[in-house]
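Good morning,

Both structures are done.
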Amino acid sequence: MINVLYVEDEQSLALIVADSLEDHGFQVVHRENGQDALKYFKKEKVDVLVLDIMMPIMDGFTLATEIRKLDVQVPILFLSAMTQTDDVVKGFHLGANDYIRKPFKIEELIVRIEALVKRVKRVGPQVFHIGDYIFDANKNTLQYKDTLEKLSYREMELIRRLFENKEQVVPREDIIKTYWGDDTYFTGRSLDVFISRIRKYFIHDERIKITNVRGIGYVMNIG
């Protein structure tokens, strides 16, 4: 059973989401603000945190910062109506693993939670050498010499997926459905942005190429 700490100040939404997650086999503890959530986290076992951002007493950004001081591994997923790119980027920089915009489908939330928890429990080596880079999937980092890049959850998973299937085409549709939940124009464009960003991370090693196979997917080649 997955233990979820769900932090949301909107009571009606919290009740619906908590009940839906419990119906799907999750154990959910709900708190209305970051301060109460932090107190609970310090005492009890939590597999994943699902956080609203705009909350009284202590907001989600502040809570994520405090959580990361205590635990660098526990997955954090933000749920928020805030849609500005800067807000999303700030969330990832504070240590979030994923971000879903409100309104959302409960099925998408369930898939995201399960993926985050599965990733943390995944066994086997989590540090990989990709050309001249060191990729640490535990810490969400990509290192080139003395330069360390902090990756978002999706960036980390995309790099992992491409590397583990290097020299093979990874279908675009599979990537979108796994990490975005639905295949729409918006999510397709979002994937393109993520791929462009990942390409820039690898600019110091010309042997590493991420190629778009038009209409099919992407392939990582390490020459």
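Second structure follows.
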Amino acid sequence: MTEFTPDFRDDLTRLMMWRRDVRRFRSDPVDEALLSECLDTFLLAPSVGLSQPWRLVRVQSDAARAAALKNYQSANATALSDYSGDRAALYARLKLSGMREAPVHLAIYCDEATPKGAGLGASSMPEMRRYSVVGAVTQFWLAARAQGLGVGWVSILDPVQLNRDLDIPPDWSLVAYLCVGWPEAPSDTPELAKVGWEDRDAQLEMQTR
């Protein structure tokens, strides 16, 4: 069994503290070997039934990126209309994606029909496949941060339209749209906390049954 030193555990905690949802990127390119090294962490991630249901799509062409950006802009306008007053004014000022600047766009899908794993652990809770993809995304996110890269998760999207624009197989469900690149500036504080949208809880609440 591997023994981890106190220094390693402290560094791991710091890494998690400095993992941010980045929306402000420099336009500098990301070295392909470095990106591949970070993406290889998907192969190390746990998955229900060892199904490895993640499917990665590199959104790279001008047409595909323009369609994704248009999708975000439309969904963001709809989201804004759900707010009013000061909340709406604050929402309108938020920068909620780095899609224009980020050099790398990744659409991360879950293959809901994968035969791998033979359905183990997913028959009663099929959503476990998607949770497995989320775990893999988190692992990639930490690996990217350790290399100095920033990752931004864009959730303000119409997945049906995105799937149509990217010609995605019908059994794949969108889990994450990620922007990857070099952040303008590092920060250990969530941007939404900085601008007063919401505060992060300082203590974990736990109930006992």
